[in-house]
Structures are given as structure tokens and as C-alpha cells.
Design brief:
alpha+beta, three-stranded antiparallel β-sheet
Length: 341
């Protein structure tokens, strides 16, 4: 019995030698190492097009990307949520000061672009803010943070020759201390639009802009799906034009305003905050056993202490009274060789 307790105390002593930051980083690394990335040319489902991954970038497939969006970043589930991520080679989904481009497709029909030069984007921004206020009623009812459109991070720009529209919005989710950046790219096609949304925080705008030209042309429609393949005798025309795309009247089935949040680090640390609480419990138990005589027939109640109240630690890690409780995926890897399917 004494030998068992001594072994436990030795292990606990080793655990306590790690700082909270080190413990957090170990768990974050475990999540990052569970993902399988691809390079080269990626065919999109349905035969609509392909992605050519440029040098210095990598691709995370749709199944894994959806787990990140919903389970790690706290976004609502929805049909067509993602066709995968493209992100810088040296970063991961929980890396600070980085971003990912989320790829989507919406078969909304052929988008006419003849209104591109006539749009008042300041007026459009005012309308976006009003729409967000109305849609927040349903978001909050479903348990998600309200959305505040702070303003343009980059005003809309339409490249008529390449049929590419891009712009950026700065957005605040609930009472989150850091604003989210949604840098939007739309590639117009015969039957719909391919979408790239750069998901980042507002402080990462310069990083996205620096790499923007490297990713503008990575997603291409296959022959038969390109903008110039439009046949007015058989193809349907979308109900909105360039202004409608900027206003968010696309991908409505994905979620309100089709805005995706990046709370990766915050939510991950909410889970990891559990280990901080566990560490404090261990420290108290360790000190108690160190100063009191050991009972011959009493096993240490480590499991009971372990599963005690950790709610406060989780809330402190989130640093927001309004953030709904978020759990890590049920299949969160306990070992580095256990990968999500």
C-alpha cells in the first residue's frame, strides 16, 4: 500500500513540475497532430471544380474541417458548411496569429454582374447592420452569440475580368474580447458561386491581405461550370447580383449571414482550463498527504477530487459571461495516433 501511494505521489510531483501553459500547449499540439493535410490538386465533390494548393499552403478535407468549425469553433451545424480548409503550411487550426480559408459552394444560379459599378457600399453596410440586429433574435434563441457588424475591414472589390468579388467585414461575436475578421471571396460560375472565407481575428487582416493574391486563383470551375459557359436557354439566373452577394444573401442555409466564427484558441482553452483546476486539486491533496500520517486501509480519493467542480475554471478560461458552454469533440484524441475520421 505504501509503495502504491509513493508511486502516485512521484507521478503527481512530476506533473506539478509543468506550468499551466505547458500543459495547455501539450493538449493543443495533440489536437493539431490529429489532422491529416493534403497538397497538390484537390477535386471538389460533384465535379464542379478543383483546388490547386499553392506552395506554402495545405488542405484539410471537408470532414475534418467541419469538426473544427462545429466542435472546436462553436459554429452551428448546417448543410454545405465546408468543402475543406486551405491554410498556411506552418500553421494549424488553433495557431494564434493565423487564419484559414473555408471553401464552400452554393448552386444559386448565374449571378449577373451588371450592377457592380453602381453599388453604394456605405449604404449597404448600414443595411447589413440592421439585418444582423434582426437575425440575432433567432441566433440568441438557439443559444449562439449575437453578431455585431463593426464595419468594412476592406471595401468590396469586383474583378470583372476574372469574375472574382472580394471584401472583408469586421465582426464582434457576443462579448468576445477579440473581433473576428471574415474576408470573403466569391468566384462566379455558370450555376453558382465558389466561396472562400478567410476566418481570422481582426488583428490578422494584414496576414490575409499579404497572402490574398496567392489564393485568389486556387479554386477553379471545371469546363461546363465556368461563367462563360452560361446558356440563357437552359440555365437559371440567380435572384440577386453582386450587391446581393456582399449583403450575405447567399449560403443562407449554412447559418445567419453565413458568418463563421473563429474561437479556436478560446474554446480550446476553456476545455484545457479543466487541467488547471485538476492541478490545483492535486496540489491540495498532495500537500494534505504530505503533512498527515497515511491511513493503512485508505486509498487516496484522487478520482473523486478529479471529477469535482471545474465550472469556474472553464468560465475563467473563456473570459466571457455570455459565451455558451462548449465541449470538445467526443472523439477528441487521447493519443496522437487516434485521428478523427
Amino acid at each position: 500500500m505504501k509503495k502504491t501511494v509513493l508511486t502516485i505521489l512521484t507521478c503527481l510531483s512530476a506533473l506539478l513540475s509543468f506550468s499551466q501553459d505547458e500543459i495547455n500547449q501539450v493538449k493543443i499540439d495533440s489536437v493539431e497532430n490529429s489532422y491529416h493535410y493534403q497538397h497538390g490538386t484537390i477535386e471538389l465533390k460533384g465535379g464542379i471544380g478543383k483546388i490547386t494548393i499553392p506552395k506554402g499552403f495545405k488542405y484539410l478535407d471537408a470532414q475534418q474541417a467541419e469538426k473544427v468549425l462545429v466542435d472546436l469553433w462553436g459554429n452551428p451545424k448546417g448543410e454545405g458548411l465546408t468543402l475543406g480548409f486551405v491554410l498556411p503550411e506552418q500553421t494549424g487550426v488553433l495557431t494564434e496569429n493565423s487564419y484559414v480559408f473555408n471553401i464552400q459552394y452554393d448552386e444559386i444560379g448565374y449571378v449577373k454582374d451588371d450592377d457592380a459599378d453602381d453599388i453604394d457600399y456605405d449604404e449597404l453596410l448600414d443595411q447589413l447592420k440592421k439585418d444582423a440586429t434582426e437575425e440575432n433574435k433567432e441566433r440568441v434563441k438557439q443559444g449562439y452569440d449575437a453578431i455585431t457588424i463593426v464595419g468594412w475591414a476592406a471595401k468590396p472589390f469586383y474583378d470583372e475580368k476574372r469574375k472574382i468579388l472580394h471584401w472583408a467585414k469586421e465582426i464582434k461575436f457576443g462579448s468576445q474580447p477579440v473581433n473576428t475578421l471574415n474576408y470573403n471571396i466569391r468566384i462566379l460560375g455558370r450555376k453558382g458561386v465558389l466561396v472562400l472565407n478567410a476566418i481570422a481575428t481582426s488583428s490578422e487582416l494584414k496576414l490575409v491581405q499579404k497572402d490574398l493574391n496567392k489564393v485568389l486563383d486556387i479554386v477553379q470551375f471545371n469546363e461546363g461550370y465556368q461563367y462563360d459557359d452560361f446558356d440563357e436557354s437552359v440555365d437559371s439566373v440567380a435572384a440577386w447580383t453582386i450587391g446581393g452577394l456582399v449583403a450575405g444573401k447567399v449560403l443562407a442555409k449554412v447559418g445567419f449571414l453565413a458568418i463563421i466564427a473563429k474561437f479556436g484558441k478560446v474554446i480550446a482553452l476553456a476545455f484545457l482550463g479543466f487541467f488547471g483546476a485538476f492541478k490545483k486539486k492535486i496540489q491540495g491533496w498532495f500537500s494534505k498527504n504530505k503533512s498527515e500520517p497515511e491511513a493503512e486501509n485508505e486509498e487516496p480519493k484522487l478520482l473523486e477530487e478529479h471529477t469535482g467542480d471545474t465550472t469556474n475554471s472553464n468560465e475563467e478560461a473563456i473570459a466571457s459571461d455570455d459565451q455558451p458552454e462548449t465541449e470538445l469533440p467526443k472523439d477528441f484524441p487521447e493519443k496522437e495516433d487516434e485521428h478523427p475520421v
